[in-house]
Predict the structure.
Amino acid sequence: MPVQWFPGHMHRARKQIAAIMPSIDVVIEILDARLPLFSENPMLAELRGERPCLKVLNKSDLADPVVTTAWKKYFQSQSQILPMDIVATDPKITRRIISLLLKMGPKRKLLIKPLLCLIIGIPNVGKSTLMNTLVGRKVARTANQAAITTKQKRVHISDEITLYDTPGVLWPKIDDPQASYMLAGSGAIRETAMDNTHVATWIGQYLMSEYPHLLQSRYGLDGLPDTGVALLEAIGKKRGCLLKGAEVDLDKAATILLNELRSGKIGRISLQRPLP
Ligand SMILES: Nc1nc2c(ncn2[C@@H]2O[C@H](COP(=O)(O)OP(=O)(O)OP(=O)(O)O)[C@@H](O)[C@H]2O)c(=O)[nH]1
Ligand SMILES: [Mg+2]
């Protein structure tokens, strides 16, 4: 199912990123640690070109740690790229990131011209959260919904570094069905742009194959069914999501599964693994 969700503010954001890129010293690209390649926007890679790039695998507290280690190795092999896994809400990351940015940028008299750093990434990966953490106070609104930031924002974090936060940008058409379902499952696509039950059915199937024990323990299931729809029915029954005539409300069960996946209640789950 191809997804087309590219509202007007994303068009504008893409143009603004292209306009400012020539003056940028270091790019901080935030990927979702649970699905690093699906969350890597090819359009942004083109705009970034050969600029030094700190690839931040954010929300690593929600991802399977073994898979995250494999992803860091994968990105280490790319030139001009430094990968690190973080939790953007954790103030302990600040010193490390700032010292890396200063090392990666060109050497110059910083007090005269601060290093210009641009935070980019798809919606809801934690760009504004990272900006707030690096600045040490709340300068940008954050929320667990895609497309919260709609305007580029500049903040001086010290005499040495100026940081730009940008609106999350997807690409005009996501053709790969697996990518679109996983992106929706992670929370990067507004729920109005995709069918919740379809997404949860797909994600449910994936979880049954990759993380069966976490599913069974979260929903108190003795065994697992064969299909994603049957899984939603089982979850709906356990949680009392019933319509008239004892039929399961699949939409409610889908919302439960997706919300509990996104908040980490099911466990630490990665939605993509590097190819062996
Ligand atoms: N568990 C967890 N949640 C995080 C982390 N970083 C950010 N979040 C949450 O993710 C949600 C989205 O964060 P934002 O900073 O608004 O994301 P954004 O990339 O700026 O999103 P847009 O402005 O819509 O593009 C918020 O609810 C944050 O609290 C993290 O490392 N771990
Ligand atoms: Mg934001």
User: Anything to note?
Assistant: Residues 127-128, 140, 148-149 surround magnesium ion (ligand 2) (CB under 6 Å). The chain has a mean pLDDT of 94. DSSP finds ten helices and six strands in the chain.
